[in-house]
Every structure is written in structure tokens, then in C-alpha cells.
Design brief:
This protein is an alpha/beta fold and about 325 residues long. Helix content is about 35%, strand content about 15%. The strands form two sheets. The protein has an eight-stranded parallel sheet with strand order 3-4-5-6-7-8-9-10, with helices on one face. It has a two-stranded antiparallel sheet with strand order 1-2.
Length: about 325
């Protein structure tokens, strides 16, 4: 395993870490037994960082992490998120009292005394502009309930705004071959600020595995079915904001990246890790096989400067016109 600094937090995190949305819910059927085996394999291979949220399976993902990491609280770092259990547009949802309640509930489910990284879960930009939410997080940090805090954002604009607050130590962003905009300004600014970068949706909800066809379908309880056009939350969270069929067609044009790199998924995550400002990628998983395949990313060669330029040109000319949900 290889590790990188999570900004100025003092934490070193595994380059390939994992998110737990899929084992919590909203990605179709999953079995707790498979999820727990996956978590165990990841830790055996040196993964020391996991991302979750209080709404993943209504807290179930946090409970699974508690079970998997019992007795390893000092060596395994956990980031969780809050605010989407309530009305994200209501300012009272971000009051010191409400945030403290969210925190206590997550601490109870995680069976921990402190949360390593506590993140606001994609709030509206108006909440970020107001800034009082950060005062509440400073208070939780002073109380020892959280060690560090950050923000999971939807757009570059939101990320840049968060960097204006000195207490923000990490940003979680959508960054992949179909969402390259953060590389232009946000990643350099975060590095200068000393903020870590967690990359979610590295495979654009599976599009960048190259396994889907235009006729592929998803289970009723899979967000790739019920949020394909942003019906329930920001469309950027599903297929990186691309219409599904368009995404499948675009992914097919990128199949060359797998040459010498095993498969498209590993190549796609290698491209992300080729950006030094990135602290880690956090792909999702449902079982041990997916853990093993994602970890193989560490062994594939980096992209050449010519390949990077080719991918950037492809993004600007063929992908950008189709993106929805902001960049």
C-alpha cells in the first residue's frame, strides 16, 4: 500500500481508500456479509481510511464500519458526513445544536469517541456563504468530538468558497475522466491551502468500468435508476451528470486507456492519482472481488504527458457539452 498526506491534518491515508455508500444502500441489493468481508480484505491490504455518511442506509454503513474496525480505532481512520438527514435548505439544520445531535448519533453508530474527519454533506452554496456552520464545527473540534472537518461539494465554485474558511482541512469532490474541471484551479488552490482532496465517484457511477451497454438497467433501489436525471438529489452524483446512454458511448471512446493497465477502472483511477494534489480515491464496493480489483490500481503505470493532453482535449470537446449538475 502507498500512503499520502491528507492535507495538513497530520493523517496519512491509503491512496486507494473506500467509500461505503454501496454497502449501506442505494446501489441495488447488497449483503452485509459480503460488505464486511470486503472491509476486512481492504484492511489486510493496508487500507486505513474509509468514507461514509449518516444517510447511507440510514446509518447502516456506519454500523458496518463499527463492526469491521472494532479494536482498530487508532489505526483505521473514518470520515463521515452530516446534514442530509434533514432539510438541507433550512438554516436550523446547521445550528450548533442540530450538528451536535448529528455528530452524537454518528459517534454512537461508529462506536467511537471522536470522528477523524467530519464533513458537511453537499450543502447548498448559501449555507457555505453564511459560514456559521463552520463555527459550530469549530466548537465540536474544541470539545474533542471531531478531530478535523471538511466539506463534500458538488462544484468547483463551492470548493473554492470552502477554502476561504481556515478550518476546512479537506474537500471531497467529484473528479474523474468525465469531470476534469477541478484539476484547473481547485486542486492547486487546495494544495496551497493545505487541504486534503478525497475523490468520490472516480468511476462515474460505473460508466468508466466500460462494462455497461446502452440497454443496461438497474434495480429499483439503485440511485442509477431513481436519480438518473436528478430526480432526488444533484444529478452530478449519478453518472457524473451525464445522460446514461451518452456516458456509455463516451466511455467506449476511452477504452484505449486500459491498454497495459489491466482494465478501464484501474486506468481511470490511475489517472486521478496522477494528480499529486489528490490525497486518495474512494471507490465504492460490494464484495471482496471489487476491493481486490480496485487495489490493483496501485500497480498500473501512470499516464504520459501526451496521454494526459489527449484525455484533456477529449473532455473539453466531447464531454463538457453533456454535463449536467454543475462542474
Amino acid at each position: 500500500m502507498k500512503y499520502r498526506k491528507l492535507g495538513n491534518t497530520g493523517l496519512s491515508v491509503s491512496e486507494v481508500s473506500f467509500g461505503t455508500w454501496a454497502i449501506g444502500g442505494d446501489w441495488g441489493s447488497s449483503r452485509d456479509e459480503d460488505g464486511l468481508k470486503g472491509l476486512q480484505l481492504a484492511m489486510e491490504q493496508g487500507v486505513n481510511f474509509f468514507d461514509t455518511a449518516d444517510v447511507y442506509g440510514s446509518g447502516h454503513a456506519e454500523e458496518l464500519l463499527a463492526k469491521a474496525t472494532k479494536g482498530k480505532q487508532e489505526e483505521i481512520h473514518i470520515a463521515t458526513k452530516f446534514c442530509r438527514g434533514g432539510d438541507i435548505h433550512d438554516s436550523q439544520n446547521y445550528s450548533a445544536r442540530r450538528i451536535s445531535e448529528y455528530c452524537e448519533q454518528s459517534l454512537r453508530r461508529l462506536e467511537r469517541e471522536a470522528i477523524d474527519l467530519y464533513q458537511i454533506h453537499c450543502p447548498p452554496i448559501e449555507i457555505l456563504r453564511d459560514g456559521s456552520v463552520f463555527e459550530a464545527l469549530d466548537q465540536l473540534k474544541a470539545e474533542g468530538k471531531i478531530r478535523h472537518y471538511g466539506v463534500s461539494v458538488e462544484t468547483v465554485e463551492e470548493g473554492l468558497l470552502c477554502l476561504e474558511y481556515p478550518g476546512v482541512e479537506a474537500l471531497q469532490v467529484i473528479f474523474n475522466l468525465f469531470r476534469q474541471q477541478p484539476a484547473l484551479e481547485l486542486l492547486p488552490r487546495a494544495a496551497a491551502h493545505g487541504a486534503g482532496i478525497l475523490v468520490r465517484l472516480p468511476l462515474a457511477s460505473g460508466l468508466l468500468t466500460g462494462k455497461f451497454k446502452e440497454t443496461s438497467t438497474f434495480q429499483e433501489n439503485d440511485h442509477r435508476n431513481f436519480n438518473a436525471n436528478g430526480e432526488h438529489f444533484n444529478v452530478g452524483e449519478t453518472f457524473a451528470g451525464l445522460p446514461f446512454v451518452t456516458g456509455v458511448e463516451l466511455a467506449r471512446k476511452l477504452d484505449w486507456i486500459a491498454d497495459g493497465r489491466g482494465n478501464m477502472a484501474r486506468a481511470s483511477m490511475r489517472w486521478i492519482l496522477d494528480h499529486p494534489a489528490v490525497s486518495c480515491v474512494i471507490p465504492g464496493f460490494k464484495n471482496e472481488a471489487q476491493i481486490a480489483d480496485n487495489l490493483a490500481t496501485l500497480d498500473v503505470p501512470s499516464f504520459s504527458s501526451a496521454e494526459m493532453e489527449r484525455l484533456s482535449a477529449f473532455y473539453q470537446s466531447e464531454v463538457v457539452p453533456h454535463i449536467r449538475g454543475g462542474v
